[in-house]
Amino acid sequence: MDNWIDGKPVSLSPVESQPHSPRYMASSQRERESLEVRMREVEEENRVLRKQLSLAQSQSPAHHHGNHSKTYSMEEGTGDSESLRAGIVAGNSSECGQQPAVEKCETIHVAIVCAGYNASRDVVTLVKSVLFHRRNPLHFHLIADAIAKQILATLFQTWMVPAVRIDFYDADELKSEVSWIPNKHYSGIYGLMKLVLTKTLPSNLERVIVLDTDITFATDIAELWAVFHKFKGQQVLGLVENQSDWYLGNLWKNHRPWPALGRGYNTGVILLLLDKLRKMKWEQMWRLTAERELMSMLSTSLADQDIFNAVIKQNPFLVYQLPCFWNVQLSDHTRSEQCYRDVSDLKVIHWNSPKKLRVKNKHVEFFRNLYLTFLEYDGNLLRRELFGCPSETDVNSENLQKQLSELDEDDLCYEFRRERFTVHRTHLYFLHYEYEPASDNTDVTLVAQLSMDRLQMLEAICKHWEGPISLALYLSDAEAQQFLRYAQGSEVLMSRHNVGYHIVYKEGQFYPVNLLRNVAMKHISTPYMFLSDIDFLPMYGLYEYLRKSVIQLDLANTKKALIVPAFETLRYRLSFPKSKAELLSMLDMGTLFTFRYHVWTKGHAPTNFAKWRTATTPYRVEWEADFEPYVVVRKDCPEYDRRFVGFGWNKVAHIMELDAQEYEFTVLPNAYMIHMPHAPSFDITKFRSNKQYRICLKTLKEEFQQDMSRHYGFAALKYLTAENNS
């Protein structure tokens, strides 16, 4: 059997581990030599056994719910004497032959309660910090409301991190379990849901680490998982002592906290021994305690933490007290600095003040920098395999590999073709979103996409368009945080709750324009959408005008694409026309032009601007080669083709597809939009300067047209003819 000393394995036989064995009676040289020989033999036996077990494990499927399998890693320990890193149990030598506590491929289970838009952002930062340090498979159990589930399910699905499993549990279904408890804490009803985890999580799950969303890990979570092996007797809860004076009372006049043992315990980090808690009838225990205390306390101040502490006050034997570095609490008036002498002592940082990063603490700058490191860390770098641990086969990942393997890497257009299959990590509804579409079924969402260099357009668009907006933003992790700070500092943007900001994280060398459009289109809640671009300002009142046009032209029952005529100005300062008459006057004076008049007339010529000048009723136009108007369509219109990235043909192909599906193009006589000037995009510069870029775009166009012919048959021949004639 194995003992561990200073983080290193020392193999002893059962006899030799007794007090009267030769190890403890070093009086005889012969006995010492005999012991050394025996130890070498046992070490060799252990080495062979480990090899056999390792082979057996590599052939067996990964475990998900169970918390114990049979193979132990002998290489994981680093000898950290504070906590004996990566699962080595410290100070536990009284338990004969204690095995190393965390197996190499053991799944670590983590439960998090998460509700709403802001908490979803916090969860991502927490998960990044865990993934950064981890060396084990992880299984996250997310108790989430409908909003958080939609956001996080998409995020993890597109993140595609190996050896990570996610399960969701409906927080809204659990509300009735805790809604009878009045709670004054800012976390609301969701702050009480950790109390019901024994009922909520799978009955065969034996243990779990429970974390608040405002936690940052500074070490491998396996170290914390290892602490379960230190629990003795009836210990079922692992908690760190509260580091503020809250439960001592007298913080202010008439301050009366819930009962607690001494300083009480903080529930930002909890180790739950679920199987034992269930046997102890935990559900009954906490409910009776809460009912009794609420008779005099009337409500909780710190949500579940008050009830956990009241139970512990009655039953102190339930707690295993964790060293305080497992939950360094950064609330105001905290004693947390007594937990660490040095950076290497820190394990978990807990931003448990409503002020979060603005909290007062002597070392807050250091903690803030650690937090910001993960906040801005490129999440794509965390898609690393765990070597030596069999991964559960992921269908999406397998399909992706299959598609990529079919591409020819020697093809000069390989990078273009590859982009079509790239899975971009996507964080939906990055900011709070709240909008109920109009009940008359006429509502229209403006759809657009942008990168960091077009951020300044957002406020202007919001001033011109009061309706709902769906935006896909192509950003790095660090840029996403810059955007967040920009938005939170803007009165215009913060006053709007009907703008959905969907972050698509950067990956690869091309701007995936049509993927971005598809993401923005997919996440609208209205029956109609206005497919625009970020550098256009819609006319004042366009939102209401489009809603009337939708009814007038019976868009609900006909396949129509309503065209909003596009114009442009070359002036950065423009007195925006407030009417069609004013716009025509500016057009005549040369202040405005029809869009792309100077460089790409064909793109908008079919709109027939000469007719539009005098039109008072909507009129139909026919598709022509290279037509790319901005249109209003039903939400069930086809997606954009992802093969087109960067500059060129991305809208043209979509309009062609609409025509192939027999959409009628109808120009609106009293609608207009104006393109605002900006520096050329990186992609148009590449298109103009790189011959291979232009060759690949031409190849992709031809392939798209062939696909159209195959899909739509004889009717699609006109696209080939039109292209050849243009």
UniProtKB/TrEMBL annotation:
As one GO molecular function, the record gives: glucuronosyltransferase activity
Q: In which pathway does it act?
A: Protein modification; protein glycosylation
Intracellular or extracellular location(s): Golgi apparatus membrane
Q: Name one GO biological process term.
A: protein O-linked glycosylation via mannose
The entry's cellular-component GO terms read: Golgi membrane
Name of the featured protein:
LARGE xylosyl- and glucuronyltransferase 1
Task: Give the bilayer topology.
Answer: Single-pass type II membrane protein
Catalytic activity field? 3-O-{(1->[3)-alpha-D-Xyl-(1->3)-beta-D-GlcA-(1->](n)-4)-beta-D-Xyl-(1->4)-Rib-ol-P-Rib-ol-P-3-beta-D-GalNAc-(1->3)-beta-D-GlcNAc-(1->4)-O-6-P-alpha-D-Man}-L-Thr-[protein] + UDP-alpha-D-glucuronate = 3-O-{beta-D-GlcA-(1->[3)-alpha-D-Xyl-(1->3)-beta-D-GlcA-(1->](n)-4)-beta-D-Xyl-(1->4)-Rib-ol-P-Rib-ol-P-3-beta-D-GalNAc-(1->3)-beta-D-GlcNAc-(1->4)-O-6-P-alpha-D-Man}-L-Thr-[protein] + UDP + H(+); 3-O-[beta-D-GlcA-(1->3)-beta-D-Xyl-(1->4)-Rib-ol-P-Rib-ol-P-3-beta-D-GalNAc-(1->3)-beta-D-GlcNAc-(1->4)-(O-6-P-alpha-D-Man)]-Thr-[protein] + UDP-alpha-D-xylose = 3-O-[alpha-D-Xyl-(1->3)-beta-D-GlcA-(1->4)-beta-D-Xyl-(1->4)-Rib-ol-P-Rib-ol-P-3-beta-D-GalNAc-(1->3)-beta-D-GlcNAc-(1->4)-(O-6-P-alpha-D-Man)]-Thr-[protein] + UDP + H(+); 3-O-{beta-D-GlcA-(1->[3)-alpha-D-Xyl-(1->3)-beta-D-GlcA-(1->](n)-4)-beta-D-Xyl-(1->4)-Rib-ol-P-Rib-ol-P-3-beta-D-GalNAc-(1->3)-beta-D-GlcNAc-(1->4)-O-6-P-alpha-D-Man}-L-Thr-[protein] + UDP-alpha-D-xylose = 3-O-{(1->[3)-alpha-D-Xyl-(1->3)-beta-D-GlcA-(1->](n+1)-4)-beta-D-Xyl-(1->4)-Rib-ol-P-Rib-ol-P-3-beta-D-GalNAc-(1->3)-beta-D-GlcNAc-(1->4)-O-6-P-alpha-D-Man}-L-Thr-[protein] + UDP + H(+)
Renumbered to this chain, region (Disordered) spans 1-39, 53-80
Q: Which UniProt keywords apply?
A: Glycoprotein, Glycosyltransferase, Golgi apparatus, Membrane, Multifunctional enzyme, Signal-anchor, Transferase, Transmembrane, Transmembrane helix
Family note: In the C-terminal section; belongs to the glycosyltransferase 49 family.
Q: What's the source species for this entry?
A: Dromaius novaehollandiae
Q: Which PANTHER family match?
A: GLYCOSYLTRANSFERASE-RELATED, XYLOSYL- AND GLUCURONYLTRANSFERASE LARGE1
For this UniProt entry, what is the primary localization, expressed as one broad class?
Golgi
Q: Where is the composition biased (Basic and acidic residues)?
A: 29-39
